[in-house]
Amino acid sequence: MEAFLHQVLAGLATGGIYASLALALVMIYQATHLVNFAQGEMAMFSTYIAWSLIDAGLPYWAAFALTVVIAFVLGVVIERVVIRPVENAPVLAVVVVFIALLVILNSVTGWIYTYTIKTFPSPFPEQPLFGIKYMSSHEMGAIGVTLAVLLLLYAFFRFTPLGLAMRAAAQNPESSRLVGIRVGWMLALGWGLAAAVGSVAGMMVAPIVYLDPNMMGGILLYAFAAALVGGVDNPGGAVFGGFLVGVLENVLGAFVIGNELKLAVALVLIIGVLVVRPSGFFGKVYVTRV
Amino acid sequence: MSRRQLIVLAVVLALACALPFLVSNYRTFQFTLVLVYAIALLGLNILTGYNGQISLGHGAFYAIGAYCTAILMDKFGVPYWATLPVAGAVCLVAGFLFGLPALRLEGLYLALATFALGVSLPQLLKNHHVEKWTGGVQGIVISKPDAPFGLPLSPDQWLYFFSLAVAILMFALARNLLRGRIGRAMVAIRDHHIAAETMGVDTAMVKSLSFGVSAMYTGVAGALGAIAVQFVAPDSFNIFLSIVFLVGIVVGGLASITGAIYGALFIQFVPNIADELSKAAPWAIFGVFLILFVYLMPAGVAGALRMALARWQAKRQND
Known about the structure:
- The structure holds two protein chains of two kinds.
- In chain A, 74% of the residues lie in helices and 0% in strands.
- Chain A contains eleven helices and no strands.
- In chain A, α2 crosses α9 (216-230) and α3 (60-83) crosses α8 (183-209).
- Chain A starts with a helix and ends in a 14-residue tail after the last helix.
- Chain B is mainly alpha-helical.
- Chain B has a domain at 23-143 and 154-241.
- The longest helix of chain B has 27 residues, at 203-229.
- At the A-B interface, α4, α9 and α11 of A face α5, α11 and α13 of B.
């Protein structure tokens, strides 16, 4: 029982990270109906930037904040320069561009930082917080950071005029343009925000999986699964999906199928959800007219 | 085919036959891989280029074909040539079965599902339940066949000619398939599936079948590739293999049969040249080429050549 509880809690911790990345995916999906295959590599690249900053002597939280800002700018720039020209292109062209981004970010990171695995520091103390023995303090901290990010995003989209404008631009671009919202820039901002959220996920997961250019492959897959389980157009659902996938992955990996088949859980979830209930648990069901 | 096309084909074939006698054994081996990739790319092109279903996980079918051959040769002593039809058949069934749920997925979602397949495949191959067959992380080593009937060829040269024969057969079959009724149905589904359905095309069947045939091509290529490389291991079939195939069809030309050959030449030789810069350079170059082709040359090398030829002919007629 104790081992089970431990796995569930550890699952919640990684689940929070999947939830953040899933949230980043959903944000871009809501605005553009595209799934960003390069989201994981963007997070990985930002995490390397954070590593450089810490390596240069910055205190952790300063590096953290600076990285989030850099990731935001990077996201905006990528949207403006690379994604904008294929905005109205067929799906295949867009997917190819995403894959190209994935490959470029991966190889450029390998080029700059080499492929040797690096350790990444955790900002949380080594002793368990509050004397709770089921979770390491990093796991608790990761959950806390995830929840804080969620709250901030919720508040931003719910209570600020800019958040409202972004939601409007995603829901109905034509009408938004008519009332004077600059829809193109809202999309770019959405990309920036997604990249920033992704960078937080990257920095939280790096102490667990270590830093290497291919670290995000599996995590991106879990994030896809999380986004799909929750309904790919529902941010709250994506967060729920993230925690669910994290717990499922940990519990199944520890007790049922063994650690080496963990990725298959994601594969089965993705295909299962897409086939049985493509809109996920909380997504809207769309009916298209001929 | 017009007479000029026949002449071009004859010249290319003659060159292809002369090639192993002009270059070293190592180069011959590389050209064997070009043939292997060309078959794999043709398979992916049937699915993605002609039928419009995006696959980011075709490395999986390549791996299944490769493992079929390796297991049959290693555990059952089956001769190498006899493993190809088996690998093809297994992949045809596997592709068809994967194609059934894929029917409900379009565009982006299919890309996602196949991406998941490509990422998780190495883990599935390493799994200890199948380790008895797949050799786990270590993989399987197989031996390269010698030339039969006492032909005066080195094993590399023989394998090249064997692959060439298989490639010619596969390309001829693909050409017939794509120019016939089914090929037209596939293109019709890609361009407008509702219209195709109203015209009486059995969309579900044709789409699953395209998936199966496509997987079969890639599987046969995987089988040939395993024989040529003499080794299979889970980590050589990671997601990047599937991405290499995507690069190949985008650069070679979507929905083009000859494009598969240009794409195969590209993915075989460009990394070799770029490797001298840095270990990461080939991938950076692949990525940049992907973006450039999408922006500037969406029809790939094959499309650009076609356009150049058409311009040249128009100019000659005007003069």
